[in-house]
Amino acid sequence: MPVSPTQVVSPTQVALVAALAVAFGFVWYFEGRGRWRSLVEDRFIGGIPWGTLVTVSIVVAFYLLAQDGLWNWASPVIYPFVTWSYFYPTGLLTAGIAHGSPGHIVSNMAATLALAPIAEYAWGHYAPSERDEYARSRGGLLGQPWIRAVVVFPAILLLSAFLTSFFSLGPGLGFSGAVFAIAGFAVVTYPISTVIAVVVAGVLRTLYTALTDPIVRATVEAGPPSPPAWAGIGFQAHMLGFLLGVVAGAALLWRRGRRPAVERVFFGTFLLGMAQALWLIVWVDEEVFTLYRGAGVAFVALLTVVVTVAAAGRREPLPRPFSGVAWVPSRRQVALVWLGILLFLSAGTVAGLVVEGDPLWWAAGILVPVALLAIPALIALSPERWRGGPTTGRQAGVVVVVVVTLLVALPSVPLGLLLVDADSAPDTAGVEVRDYQVAYAENATPGHTSLVGIGNETTATNQTGVILVSDDREMWTIGTRGNVLEHTGNDTVVVGGVGWREEIEVNRTGWEVVGNDSAYAVDLTVDGETTRSFASEPKRATARIDNRTVAVAPVSDGFEIAVFRAGELVGTAMIPSVNESVTVDEVQFETRPGDDGTRLVAARDGTEVQVAERERYD
Questions:
Q1: pLDDT in tens, 297-319
Q2: Is 204:110 a contact under the CB 8 Å cutoff?
Q3: Using H for helix, E for strand and C for coil, what is the string for 168-224?
Q4: What are the E-state strand segments in 514-606?
Q5: Which secondary-structure segment (H or E) carries 308?
Q6: The whole model's pTM is what?
Q7: Of 251, 309, 480, 554, which has the fewest CB atoms closer than 10 Å, so is most exposed?
């Protein structure tokens, strides 16, 4: 965390650094000092994972500079770097390396520092094969150690970050997809080291928090309403990254003729999947969040078997378990039957859409999975010379992993074909900050329009809160939820772009009306200028005094009392300041302070009733 000139380093932080230096210095001195470096010098230039360090430097520099984290560490600029749509190229290019908070980037970078050196070690700075040695002798770039270290390896990690954000299921942000790609690559090449690295990543996060927050004091308090923590995790991008890493790792093992131990790959993959929550499968239906933990764990168990076969399976042809039976269909015959079934399903889907008059784009919902399920049959029908001989278990495992990878990735495509119109901004008063339109609204309808008619259902739930719209960025999102603002009373929404930043202060004020909802207003402040973005409808109290009822209504400069008699409005007045009173239609209204809050009390002929209480925020 950047340290300001006035920030004082605490004695606890000094003591912690000294203790760590002594502890690691001890083992370094008594265990051979240069021994560890010599273990990796045959793969790393100078024994240092340069590619990992370059990648971490790029991601951290982006957070500090492009996202303004150097000056605003805790509140970076986020919105311009999210994958809102395939029609917003800036988000597509930057989402994989941008982060939403200090905890977000620290967690991803700790995991990268722990896991990426294993992947980099497997790849190597020095070309191991004859082909690469030839390229190096001829001056080929791929054979140059420094090019492999500081260009090729970081480029591969950044490419994986781009792919996982491009195919994310909805708006994506963060390097975690690439982290899981690194983990998938590492676990099939060096399984035991990868499991240890997962523990090391947790240690690095703890060390960081111990240094930045050595002493934490907290009290028992209720927080604002929020979804469960697991609901905000990009589980689909994590799984996609992991599968991409497995495919790349299996390809490397195949090319170099390595076959790791089956039990190591199996237990390494299973432990990694459990520890890193690859079992996370979540479905959101309006405000209900469902976690399918049992199904997710079962899926990881089966996936572990497939990954193990793809990485450590034998190269012998697949056995023929029914060879002793008088007649069984050949693989070619089974493949033809399978393709016929898939063709029948595809034709039935298209015919049904034509009959119903639905858009043919909807066929993608089934035709894409059908096409993927056809891949194994097409491979079985291909000439053996194309496959290098009969199909082996290892090849079959890789094919299954590739098919699963495509099944995980492709459903995100329709959700990325979204457009947003500036007219979709709420019709309440708001502020404009360059291309952003910001306003508070209740039950606002999301303004996304899908080009293929798919995806609207996932975002159709009406939203209450501070709405941000930018047609330049194809963005329609909620900056602060209404129920959170009801709890906190204020918030800061940060908008911006490459090279600029603007903060919008959001403030809610209101009165809890007896027997009714709150009457409240929301103000937005930009550059010292305040705009009342939203004012609720008047709320009438259920309390009555001398056959009169009272309502509280937000107005431009405060809150107003409205008195009704026999259903007719007989007078209005502004709610008085604390310890002051006002009379409307012979009823005296007084604002009284108290330990349990500020109350608005109505009195007439010795009778008092409470009308409302000022909202209190945490």
A1: 999 999 999 999 999 887 666 55
A2: yes
A3: CCCCCCCCHHHHHHHHHHHHHHCHHHHHHHHHHHHHHHHHHHHHHCCCCCCCCCCCC
A4: 518-526, 529-535, 539-545, 548-555, 558-565, 568-574, 581-584, 587-592, 599-604
A5: helix 293-312
A6: 0.84
A7: 251
Burial class (CB in 10 A: 0-12, 13-18, 19+), 605: exposed
What does the CA dihedral 316, 320, 321, 325 come to, rounded to 10 degrees?
A: -160
Residue 120 to residue 193: CA distance in whole angstroms: 13
243 pLDDT band, cuts 50/70/90, is very high
Question: Residue 227 to residues 84, 170, 172, 289: CA-CA distances in angstroms?
Answer: 21, 17, 18, 8
- Angstrom distance (rounded) from CA 59 to CA 52: 11
User: Residue 543 phi/psi, 5° resolution?
Assistant: -70, 145
Q: Please calculate the CA angle 594-597-603 and round it to the nearest 5 degrees.
A: 70
Give the pair of three-digit tokens for residue 253.
């093992």
CA-based radius of gyration for the chain: 31
Report d(CA 461, CA 468) in Å as an integer.
Answer: 16
Helices (H), ranges, 98-152: 102-123, 130-137, 145-147
Q: How far is CA 37 from the centre of its chain?
A: 37
Report d(CA 505, CA 406) in Å as an integer.
43
Token digits of residue 285: 């239906």
Position 47 confidence tier, pLDDT thresholds 50, 70, 90 = confident
Residue 112 has which token pair?
A: 């990268």
Domain locations along the chain:
11-213+236-257, 331-416, 418-532, 538-614
Region 254-277: what's the mean pLDDT? 92
pLDDT digits (tens, 9 = 90+) for 181-237: 999 999 999 999 999 999 999 898 888 888 888 888 877 766 677 778 877 788 899
State the burial class of residue 43 (Cβ atoms within 10 Å of its Cβ: 0-12, 13-18, 19+). middle
User: Binning pLDDT at 50, 70 and 90, where does residue 130 land?
Assistant: very low
Give the dihedral sign, CA 245/251/256/259: positive
Compute φ and ψ for 379, nearest 5 degrees. Answer: -65, -40
Please identify which residue in the block is written with the tokens 């990992």: 52
Q: Which two tokens stand for residue 548?
A: 């009169």
Residue 307 · residue 245 · CB < 8 Å: no
Cα 371 to chain centroid, rounded: 29
Q: Residue 84 contacts by C-beta under 8 Å, 6 or more apart in sequence?
A: 91, 171, 418, 420, 473, 474, 475, 477
What rounded mean pLDDT belongs to the chain? Answer: 84
Q: Where are the strands (E) in 265-322, listed by range?
A: 282-285, 288-291
Cα–Cα distance, 313 to 305 (Å, whole number): 10
What distance in Å separates the CA atoms of residue 351 and residue 147, rounded to the nearest whole number?
54
Which pLDDT band, with edges at 50, 70 and 90, does 360 fall under? Answer: low
d(CA 300, CA 308): 12
* Of 518, 482, 523, the residue nearest 506 (C-alpha): 523
Contacts 24+ apart (CB under 8 A), 367-372: 368/410, 368/411, 369/407, 370/342, 370/345, 370/346, 372/403, 372/406, 372/407, 372/410
In angstroms, the CA 119 to CA 123 distance is: 6
Closest CA to 126 of 116, 114, 110, 137: 137
| Three-point CA angle 365, 371, 376, nearest 5° | 140
